[in-house]
Amino acid sequence: MQITIRKLTAGDVETLIEIARDSWKWTYGEIYSEEYIDQWIREKYSKEKLLNEVNRSQSNLDIILLGSFNESGMTGFIELKINEGNAELLRLYLKPIYTRYGMGESLLLEAEKMLRERHIVECSLFVHQRNVIAISFYKKNGFEVAEINEEDIIMKKMYE
Ligand SMILES: CC(C)(COP(=O)(O)OP(=O)(O)OC[C@H]1O[C@@H](n2cnc3c(N)ncnc32)[C@H](O)[C@@H]1OP(=O)(O)O)[C@@H](O)C(=O)NCCC(=O)NCCS
Description:
Blueprint: E1 4-7, H1 13-28, H2 34-44, H3 47-58, E2 63-70, E3 73-82, E4 86-94, H4 103-117, E5 122-128, H5 132-140, E6 144-149, E7 152-158
Parallel strand pairs: 4-5
Antiparallel strand pairs: 1-2, 2-3, 3-4, 5-7, 6-7
Helix pairs in contact: 1-2
The protein binds coenzyme A.
């Protein structure tokens, strides 16, 4: 499948929210109730917050926010927060129908290219212990388990 990856713009925000909602239900449907997920998306993925993050990413500030696109439109997104010398992978969500085509890896590789350009040496992330697909994905892409924090696993990857 042919995909392109680019920084997200304000016009992509509504689609990002839809993808996040679908992906959350697909991923966490057996862990959290539908009401909990809807509430989470309303709070954490508010249009206002996302527009601010799009702006910070477009201005090369502390956020990297990229989307993957095919001929039908946006298929997924990745978001990272840059701190001094290190980064945190905050979000990586695909439309469920587009999983397992290598898009997650493409999004991660593009984000990592940007991390290297910015001389970031370490990237960490939190993943729910029961999210076995994501844990497998991150291990395959070079992340290692660093710590267990309640229901989450903290994973890390170092860059030269
Ligand atoms: C995690 C995610 C981004 C991976 O993206 P992807 O494009 O499907 O993954 P890729 O095709 O690049 O990589 C494939 C690898 O991911 C893992 N994987 C992906 N889908 C899987 C599935 N259905 N079952 C088991 N492993 C799976 C495996 O390690 C797989 O390697 P393999 O094919 O050699 O077994 C995607 O599954 C997703 O959006 N999941 C829901 C959201 C999520 O959990 N995000 C992480 C939050 S911390």
